[in-house]
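quick one, 336 residues, struct below
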Amino acid sequence: MRFQEVLFRNLPKFFREWIKRQLKYANFTIKPENYFFMTLIYSIIVAVALFFIVIFFDIRILSLSSKMVAIIFSLGGFFGFQTFMYSIVILTADRVARFVDEILPDALRLISANLRAGLTPDKALLLSARPEFGPLQKHIRNAALLSFSGVSIEDAIKTIPENINSKVVRRSFDLLREGISKGGNLSHLLDGLAEDISQAKLMKKEVHAFVLMYAIFIFFAAGVGAPLLYGVSSFLVGTMQQIQTPTPELSIPASMKSMKFLRIGGAGIEVSPEFLTVYSITALLITSIFGGLIIGLIKEGSEKAGLKYIPILLLLSLGVFYMSRKLVTTIFGVFV
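---
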């Protein structure tokens, strides 16, 4: 037994089953233990590389030593690469499901036409496995071949939704199984299902047009508004800190020593610009993650669909943050 198989078997059962399901939904032919092992090795390489880069350039953040910063970056790189690799599988599975949802009405109508032509359900399934149906073709064909090998048609049809992560596919073929078991008019049932799915798609597109404004607002707030405010506030804190720093060469008249000046918080600014920069980047990271998930939920009805927006929001928000700081410093820095 290979090392990756032993390592994979020692994982928690729910995690093993989750990896198997997602790879199956995404139509990946790689074995789950191989994908897990490959992801683990690459994550370790990224973590080690980040550790030595931080040590080599002696990067320090706040009062942390370069070794502590290297450990933090290594852990972030390890878990970040793990998230990236599994996000690829999730997004691929979601794309497959959306494609199948699009062509499902055509597949159901073709099965219905074959049934009206006098074919049995298993032969109707086999002749409906057309190449233009993409991943659905393979699953329909496998179900038909299972029924030819002696498996009941109901159990064979049950395998189709088990390989596609789509509620529409699952409900449609569950109704088909129930119609076969009850002896109903299958062609009429399939035509009705295809029509209902098409109507639901049109309604979804209309709703999408209404909620697009909310998605744009969230995207602008997370990608432009928040980093712009953080960039300006970091410059303001740095400026106030310079103003409150005592200058020995400045002589204060005796008449002004008794005057009371405005001090933020009553005791001056205690927040350093370095701390505020780290806080701002952390806040932008969290905002980009949840903002992307919310946009996916609003636009496509699934949080997983928002994973592809997270890198865009991260790059945009960080770019706006540093550009705003640079712009404000260039314009107003001469007055400080």
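The chain has three domains: 3-98, 103-202, 205-244+270-335.
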